[in-house]
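User: what does the whole thing look like in 3D?
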Amino acid sequence: MRQIFAIGVGGTGAKCVEALVHLHASGLLADQDGTPARLGVFLVEPDQQSALLTRAQIAIKRYAAMRNAVGRNSNRFARGELRDYGQWSPLTTSSGAITLDQVFPKAVLRTKAPGVAALFDCLFPPEEQSAELEVGFRGRPPIGSAVMSRIDLEQEAQTGHWQQMLNDIQTSAGSGDPPLIHLFGSVFGGTGASGVPTLGQLVKNWLKGQGLTSVQVQASLLLPYFDFEGRKDDDTGVHAESRNFQLNTDAALQYLRNSGTSCFDRVFLVGSDTKARYDFSIGGTSQANAAHLVEMLAALAVRHPATNGGGYAHVISRSNKQFVSWDDLPDDEQVGEAIARAARFAVAWKNNISLEINDAQKVSIHTFISGAPWARRFFHLGSREDNQGGRPGIRDQQELTIQSSIDEYCDTLLQWLNQLSSNLGSNFRQELFTASLLVPSDCYENDLSRIVQGKARPQLPEASDTVGSIKVRMDNLSNELIPHRGMAGLADCLWTHVV
Amino acid sequence: MKKNQWILLAVSVAIGLIWIFLLQSTILLNSFPGILQIPGGNLATYLQFGSSPAFQVFWVGCICALLTWIGVTWSRKPRSSIQTRQMQPMWWLAAGLLTIFGWFCLFWFTILQWQVTGTSPVQGGPNYYPVPPGGWVLLLLFVVLDVVLLFWLPTLLATPRNYRLVVPGAVKLFGSR
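Assistant: Here's the predicted 3D structure for the full assembly of 676 residues, as structure tokens:
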């Protein structure tokens, strides 16, 4: 089984991991024979209140909960294994220090190494030295680099959050199918720009030290793709400024050119000339930047085949300046089908099937079945709790728990897809999804024909591209074609027949 | 609609046809002469010119209702089981109206048409067939039986897609595969 270890650094890195989890849920991370890969995710972020970190954690937890609830009762739906290694702050190694002059105590430096103290003053102006780093590295890579460079991976490997992941990497590397380590982060902000190359180098050195040279370390590095709008407050202090993005990017690319191979075996550079607009935020809970297509492209880099001589840096471009379509995605046929399936499933489940299950709780089972013949293929008609012919009751608590876990994940997926399709920047459009349909609704959505646009839309006549048609199909399936019953079996069947 | 549903629809319509045009009058004539016997009249004549035309017109009504039901359930695209179940009262309404229509047909061919023309079906008798009260009850019950045979059975066997368990009794008979 292919094993992928994804490390998201900073807010953008967390958003890329969020995208990767959704791609994994869509079945896009698999080995060559189609066996779903095992994805391990780890988030590195000094800003523990970051809304972006929270969102990524929600996606991770909800997918993991859904997969756990579905268990083995599915052949195709939610098959990809996900391991959450948690989140880690580089500040936790600094004995509670939250400012740069606490990380590098100046009083001690002045006494023991006055030259270094002077250099410290020279490199970091007073406001940077005293800026609280609980909200991240404030868009300043030098601050981040200074903090990150103090990480001792050998020591971290003995305890804490890194331990389990590094152990798993070791175990996986010994199994014959070397794992892939993929880092995500921006090169134009603070945490990602400083953290991704530093961590890449640390991980590479650690692997070398362990004799695990077959393990590939690669990174998706995000170039500027958004701007801030709105103004900072007077007491904001040191903060990320979009006018510095290009400067930070140039410095990062220059560093990569000179020392990139010591950090990564290859890199994927993704950005956008059309910038999305986000409200200004210094960090924390207010930094609720919507998901962006660039993050999905960065996550898709994990699928890029490892070929010898393929080059170090990979870039991607679109064919039309005004819009993006499925043709612009790498491996567009497979990727388009998988994401289209996930989007259509989420709408069909959340906005129709799940509402039907809720309706079944309010009326007698016979009344419900009279309008939903498809349901009896998955649930028995008796009011007793026992299992009949492998079919559990539609009111069994265990089944309702599975329903609720699928509901929650679909909510997250719909939110991500909706933001992805609507957060584009001015004078730019996408021909992937209809954003207005990617929202939870209580209206028993039936029409699936407009959810996905372009060539990824299934080639079905519009009139029969409905949830109603899928219900009829499920009702008419032979028993052999319904391998699992109950809520998980229903989700599996819907997943199979939704495209 | 599935192939076997088309076959079942054709078979049930054929059974209804045979029942109405061949069997029903024979059964009424041979099994219930005591109840239906018209004072001063000929039962066979009444069955030929009174009840049979009534049941044949009623049969046309049933076929129309059946085709309408199949057409509506075939073309509708319900968004939910709630919408699907909304056809249940429509079925009962159709069945109720058909029963009333059947009774009206009997009433027309037995009484009203003679009242309108001012003639008498029985020589020297009143201008209507004097069917005894027990006979009326029997004929009205046959109308109900015909609704079962000509409407319930075909709709039970051939209602398509998500509507197929809406017909009364369908969940009991087909709901536990």
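In plain terms: The longest helix of chain A spans residues 332-360. The radius of gyration of chain A is 24 Å.
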